[in-house]
Amino acid sequence: MARIPYADMSALPDDLREWHAKLPPNSHLFMMVAHAEASAATLMQVGLQQIRELELSARLRELAANATACVLGADYLRVRHNPPGVPITADEREAVYLGDHSGFSGIDLAVLTFATAVARGLPVDDAEFAPVRAELSDRQIVELIQVIGYYWMFGQFANVLQIDAEPYEK
């Protein structure tokens, strides 16, 4: 059970109710973030931009998001970050969440290693950065760090506030 109640969508400003209507059903995380009325719409917009406008591939974004969830032990992200059309398999997602990168290679492994290091909040050493630098553009590296930071923030919301992790409704 969540530590604080979810926002009452009927009591929120029109712009936040409109955002909520665009979200998948039972989006408890966004119902919690909506308490911060001044920034909730901005956070939702950033999330949509990460899906629609980044040069970084959807697969690499998903690997980074799941590696971040692993570091945080964020069950909410593990359960919820499984939307239709996700470009990684259920087995890959489970392996990443368990910290098992042995089935990955190339840029996938580089991103997993880098994302894990960034999500831990410690300095990223040259051995963790070099493989990403060799494969990604400057823009993609910055986008990758943004994706990791975004999911780290939402993972912390979920963990600290003990947000209920329910799978997507079909």
What does this structure look like?
This is Alkylhydroperoxidase family enzyme. It comes from Nonomuraea endophytica. Keywords: Oxidoreductase, Peroxidase. GO terms for molecular function: peroxidase activity. InterPro entries: AhpD-like. The protein has 170 residues and is an all-alpha fold. The protein has a single domain (15-170), classed as AhpD-like (Up-down Bundle), CATH 1.20.1290.10. The chain is 63% helix and 0% strand. The protein contains 9 helices and no strands. It has helices at residues 14-22, 28-33, 37-52, 58-72, 75-80, 90-97, 106-119, 126-135, 138-160. Helix 7 packs across helix 9. The longest helix is centred in the C-terminal third of the chain and has 23 residues, at 138-160. 31% of the residues are buried. The model has no long low-confidence stretch (mean pLDDT 90).
